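Propose amino acids for all 600 sites.
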C-alpha cells in the first residue's frame, strides 16, 4: 500500500471512528433522556388514571369498560389488576378474553407497586408481542389493594433515535469526502519525494554506491541524508566483512572437527559440513534447538551450563546420529565436545550471545581402546592356564620328580601339551594381527570348492576316526568360488575341526554347498548340542567360548572363529551361525561365485 493510499485510509479511518463514537454517544444519550422523560410522563398519567378509578363503585364489574374509557383519555394501554393479581380490565384485550391472560401478580412493575406503591418496567409484552414501557400504581380499596398499570409503546423514542442516526450517517459521508480530498492533496505533496527515496533505497540493495542527495531541511531531506550515511557505512562494513567471511568460511569448510554455534536463545545458527557428515545433521537444523536436532541430553546440559556460567567446559558425550546410517555400523558416535561462550563485542557485560562447540570424533579411538583392553584381559587369561601348568610341572620336576621316570614323563607330557597350546595361541594371535592389520595379502582366484573341501576333510579324517565321527562332503564338482586358497583352507579346517571336537563320539558332520544369487553358500553342519541363541552373535569374538572349560580341554585357543570371520570378510564374503534342523550348529559361509563373475 502506497503513502497516498495510507493517508486516505488514515483520514477515512479517523472520520469513521469519529462518526461511530459520535453516533454511539448521541443515540445512547438521547435515547436515555427520551426514555426517562417518557417514563416520568407515563407515571404522571398513571397517577391520574388511578385517581379516576378510585371513585368507581363495583370496580370488578366496571373494570373492562373503565379500562377502555381511560385508555383513550390517557393515550396509553390501561390494565386493572385485582388484589389476587388477576387482570379485570385491559384496554388492549376484549372482555371475553381476559380469562386467557396470565396472573399478573408476579410482573415486576405490579409487584413493586404492591410493595412500594409505584413500579416501573420495560420488556416485550406477552400479550401484544411489542416492546413496552410500564408504570404501575397501587390503589387501596376495601376489598384489598388493586394495581392500575399503564403501558406505552416507545415508538416516538425509536423514531427520534432513527432520525438522529440518519443525521450522523449523513455527516459521516460528508466528513469522508472532505477527508479523502485532504488526503489526496497531502499525498501529492509527499509521494513524489518519498517515491524517489524508495527507488534509491531499492537500488542500494544491489549498488551501495548510489546516493539520494535530497535537498531541503525537512524530515524527508533528513531521511535522504540518513540513507546516504547508511549506504556509506554498509559499503565499508561489506568490504571489511567480505574478506573475513571468506576466510572464516574456508576454515570451517576445511576443518575435520565438527562446529556448532547457538544464539542467545539457544537455537542453532551454524553447523559446518564436518559436523553434518559426522552426525547426519540436515540443512534445516539452523533455527532449531540442539536437543531437537541431536537428541542428546548430555550435549543439551553442556551447552546450557556454558551459557549460564559463561565459562568454557569440555565433556565426552555419546550421541546417536540425527539420520540413520550416519554413524556407521556402531550406530552411535562418541565425541569430545569443547564448548565456550560466544560473546559479541557490543554485548560484553550483558551475557553470552551464544555458545560455540567443537566436536572431536573419538569413536574409533574408544573402540580400539576397548578392543585393546579386552584383548589384553583375554590374552592374559588364556596364557595364564598353560603357563601355570608348565610352571607347576617344572617346579615338581625340580623338586625331585626327575628321579621318578614314570612321574617325570607325565610332567614332561604336561609341559609339552601346554607348550604346544601356547605355540598355537601365539600363531593364532599373529595370524589375527596380520589379517586385521591387512599385512596378510590375499590372492583371490578361481577355486573348485569340492576339491578344496575334500582336501581339508582328508587331513582331518584321522581325528574324526578317533571320535568315530562321520564327515560327509556334499559339494558338487565344478562349484567355483572366487577366494584365496590358503585362506579358504584355513576357514574350512577351522569349521570342520570345531564340528568334530564339539560333538559327541559317533556324530555326523556334513559339508554342503549351493549357488544363490551370484554367490556360493558353504554350510558346515553337525548333529551335536548346537549353540544357544544367546551365544550365537558372539561366537566370532576373540577368546569367546560357549563352554570355556570344554574348549580349553579340547585344546582350542578361542581365536579360530574370529580368524575365520576376518578371512571370510577379507574375501568379500560373510559368515553366520544358526542351529540346524537336527539341533546341531550350522555355520553358513557366503563367498562370491567365480562362475557369476565370469558370466558378468
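Proposal:
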Amino acid at each position: 500500500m502506497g503513502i497516498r493510499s495510507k493517508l486516505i485510509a488514515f483520514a477515512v479511518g479517523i472520520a469513521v471512528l469519529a462518526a461511530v463514537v459520535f453516533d454511539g454517544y448521541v443515540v445512547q444519550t438521547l435515547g436515555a433522556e427520551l426514555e426517562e422523560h417518557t417514563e416520568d410522563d407515563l407515571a404522571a398519567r398513571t397517577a391520574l388514571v388511578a385517581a379516576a378509578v378510585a371513585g368507581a363503585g363495583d370496580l370488578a364489574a366496571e373494570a373492562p369498560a373503565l379500562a377502555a374509557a381511560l385508555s383513550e383519555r390517557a393515550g396509553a394501554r390501561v390494565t386493572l389488576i385485582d388484589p389476587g393479581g388477576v387482570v379485570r380490565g385491559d384496554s388492549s384485550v376484549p372482555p371475553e378474553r381476559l380469562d386467557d391472560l396470565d396472573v399478573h401478580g408476579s410482573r415486576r412493575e405490579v409487584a413493586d407497586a404492591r410493595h412500594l406503591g409505584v413500579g416501573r418496567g420495560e420488556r416485550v409484552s406477552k400479550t401484544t408481542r411489542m416492546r413496552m414501557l410500564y408504570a404501575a400504581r397501587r390503589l387501596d380499596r376495601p376489598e384489598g389493594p388493586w394495581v392500575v398499570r399503564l403501558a406505552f409503546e416507545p415508538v416516538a423514542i425509536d423514531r427520534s433515535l432513527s432520525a438522529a442516526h440518519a443525521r450522523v450517517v449523513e455527516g459521516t459521508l460528508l466528513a469522508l469526502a472532505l477527508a479523502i480530498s485532504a488526503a489526496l492533496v497531502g499525498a501529492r505533496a509527499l509521494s513524489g519525494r518519498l517515491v524517489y527515496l524508495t527507488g534509491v533505497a531499492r537500488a542500494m540493495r544491489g549498488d551501495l554506491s548510489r546516493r539520494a542527495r535530497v535537498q531541503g531541511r525537512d524530515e524527508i531531506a533528513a531521511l535522504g541524508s540518513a540513507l546516504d550515511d547508511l549506504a556509506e557505512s554498509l559499503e565499508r562494513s561489506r568490504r571489511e566483512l567480505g574478506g573475513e567471511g571468506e576466510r572464516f568460511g574456508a576454515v570451517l569448510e576445511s576443518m575435520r572437527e565438527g562446529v556448532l554455534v547457538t544464539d542467545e536463545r539457544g537455537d542453532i545458527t551454524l553447523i559446518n559440513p564436518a559436523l553434518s557428515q559426522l552426525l547426519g545433521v540436515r540443512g534445516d537444523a539452523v533455527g532449531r534447538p540442539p536437543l531437537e536436532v541431536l537428541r542428546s541430553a548430555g550435549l543439551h546440559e553442556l551447552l546450557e551450563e556454558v551459557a549460564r556460567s559463561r565459562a568454557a567446559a569440555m565433556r565426552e558425550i555419546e550421541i546417536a546420529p540425527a539420520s540413520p546410517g550416519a554413524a556407521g555400523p556402531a550406530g552411535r558416535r562418541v565425541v569430545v565436545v569443547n564448548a565456550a561462550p560466544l560473546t559479541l563485542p557490543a554485548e560484553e557485560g550483558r551475557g553470552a550471545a551464544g555458545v560455540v562447540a567443537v566436536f572431536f570424533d573419538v569413536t574409533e579411538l574408544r573402540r580400539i581402546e576397548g578392543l585393546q583392553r579386552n584383548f589384553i584381559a583375554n590374552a592374559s587369561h588364556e596364557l595364564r592356564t598353560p603357563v601355570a601348568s608348565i610352571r607347576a610341572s617344572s617346579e615338581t620336576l625340580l623338586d625331585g620328580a626327575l628321579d621318578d621316570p614314570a612321574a617325570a614323563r607325565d610332567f614332561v607330557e604336561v609341559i609339552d601339551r601346554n607348550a604346544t597350546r601356547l605355540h598355537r595361541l601365539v600363531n593364532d594371535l599373529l595370524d589375527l594381527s596380520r589379517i586385521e592389520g591387512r599385512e596378510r595379502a590375499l590372492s583371490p582366484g578361481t577355486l573348485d570348492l569340492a576339491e578344496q573341501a575334500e582336501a581339508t576333510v582328508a587331513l582331518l579324517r584321522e581325528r574324526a576316526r578317533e571320535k568315530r565321527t562321520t564327515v560327509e562332503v556334499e559339494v558338487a564338482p565344478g562349484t567355483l568360488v572366487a577366494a584365496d586358497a590358503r585362506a579358504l583352507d584355513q576357514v574350512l579346517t577351522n569349521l570342520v575341526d570345531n564340528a568334530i571336537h564339539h560333538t559327541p563320539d559317533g556324530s555326523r558332520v556334513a559339508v554342503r554347498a549351493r549357488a544363490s544369487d551370484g554367490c556360493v553358500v558353504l554350510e558346515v553342519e553337525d548333529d551335536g548340542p548346537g549353540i544357544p541363541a544367546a551365544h550365537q552373535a558372539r561366537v566370532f569374538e576373540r577368546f569367546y567360548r560357549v563352554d570355556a572349560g570344554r574348549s580349553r580341554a579340547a585344546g582350542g585357543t578361542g581365536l579360530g572363529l574370529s580368524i575365520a570371520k576376518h578371512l571370510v570378510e577379507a574375501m568379500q564374503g560373510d559368515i553366520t551361525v544358526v542351529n540346524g534342523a537336527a539341533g546341531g550348529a550350522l555355520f553358513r559361509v557366503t563367498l562370491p561365485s567365480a562362475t557369476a563373475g565370469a558370466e558378468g
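Residues 3-54 form the longest helix (52 residues). Residues 325-330, 549-555 have pLDDT under 50 and may be disordered.
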